[in-house]
Amino acid sequence: MAVKKVLALHGYSQNATIFYKKLGALRKYCGKGIEFVFVDAPHILRPVDLEGINPTALGAAEAATDSEPNPEELPRGWWRTNPERTKYDGVAESVAVLRDVLAKNRFDGIFGFSQGAAMAALIAAILEKPHLYPPFLIDGQAPHPPMTFCVVISGFKPIDPNWKHFFDPDYSTPTLHVFGLNDVIMTPERTRSLVEVSANRRVASHTGGHFVPANAPWKLFLREYIKDPFGNVPQPATSDEALALASSLNGTPTTSAPASGRVSPALANP
């Protein structure tokens, strides 16, 4: 059986090592049939970048007490943003890093959490329209074919004017959107902004907060989606409210086993 190779992008204030550990239970459950490749964002965050932010709430490591910082615990981000979250500083450098990774490897899909989820969706969209951003090209060609799937956990639509056009009117990479009803950091309303421009989507929600769900049903669900993005894998059991919201965003009737696979462009704006 061929191994599925997945590019994994960490959240804001995390890094590749932290995300590797956070996905430990899922990685173990996926076994040798799925390989996650973790990449560091290029921007090391400064104290000013974390003012007013609780990094542990974002899934980062607890602050080190040693005088010398541990390189494996340095908080990183794919970009820095203004207070209005409308301008992103550093995206071009992150895209360049990922371009080079893509040029040296072949991936089946991309998996991101929080800011890394937005970055994953952006990379998926750029791979569909690479000539809209010439610096992404290598010898005039995209470094990698479009992804066969994208998994975004607590994601959102990038709205910086320099990048949002990749989602105009939408992007077509099959995408699984997962979010928590009680996520106060990346609210369902912000997640919906990305769902609405995802032409081929599957939406699943849980009752938790800002994290990658990792109990047994969710590990099974994520593993089976990665193995077959168009398979009929039921969403894990959750509250009626979570099921109803996920079903409405999927464009399907409320059910514990919402239909999966492609969603017609007519349902792109629920």
UniProtKB/TrEMBL annotation:
Comp. bias intervals (Polar residues): 247-258
Keyword Hydrolase: yes
GO molecular function terms noted in the UniProt entry: hydrolase activity
Keyword annotations: Hydrolase
Organism: Sanghuangporus baumii (Phellinus baumii)
Protein's name in the database: FSH1-domain-containing protein
InterPro entries linked: AB_hydrolase_fold, FSH-like_dom, LovG
Region ranges (Disordered): 61-80, 244-270
Alphabetized PANTHER family for the sequence: ESTERASE OVCA2
Taxonomic lineage: Eukaryota, Fungi, Dikarya, Basidiomycota, Agaricomycotina
Any one cellular-component term (Gene Ontology): cytoplasm
